[in-house]
Amino acid sequence: MLSLQQLDKVERLPYINREQRKAIDGLIDNLANAACKLGKDETERAGILNYVVTRLTLRLIPQDRYWKIALTAGVFSNITSEFYRRLAAPYEDRKMKEQGDVFS
Q1: DSSP for 13-75?
Q2: Which of 64, 87, 94, 96 falls between 20 and 30 A from 10, CA-CA?
Q3: Residues 53 and 72 in one domain
């Protein structure tokens, strides 16, 4: 079970303010540009993305306690849900309108 101090940190973890974004966005852009040059296609880039995210995660949140592993898994779950909600669902809605709904 998380202590109150740990829980307080967990509640704040996913949010990043504008100043923090500004400080890190250029670094992310540089990394993304390098990854695009290294990967000749989307399949290779997916492997590079997996590697980059894994390495970054291990540096930011060392996995030496169960609660850190659980916290990290929760972050990845939220990333997946938000990615689907923002990108995949609208794409599927457009395609459903273009090609017809399989459920009707």
Answers
A1: TT---HHHHHHHHHHHHHHHHHHHHH-SSHHHHHHHHHHHHHHHHHHHS---SHHHHHHHHHH
A2: 87
A3: no
The span from the CA of 22 to the CA of 2, in Å, is 31
Closest CA to 13 of 70, 53, 65: 70
Decide if 33 is inside a domain.
Answer: yes
Q: Are residues 33 and 50 in the same domain?
A: yes
d(Cα 1, Cα 66) in Å, to the nearest integer? 10
- Considering the domain architecture, whether residues 51 and 24 belong to the same structural domain is answered as yes
Q: Give the residue numbers spanning the domain of 87.
A: 65-99
> pLDDT by residue (tens digit) across 84-103?
999 999 999 999 999 999 98
48 and 27 part of one domain: yes
How far is Cα 36 from Cα 28, in angstroms, rounded to an integer?
A: 12
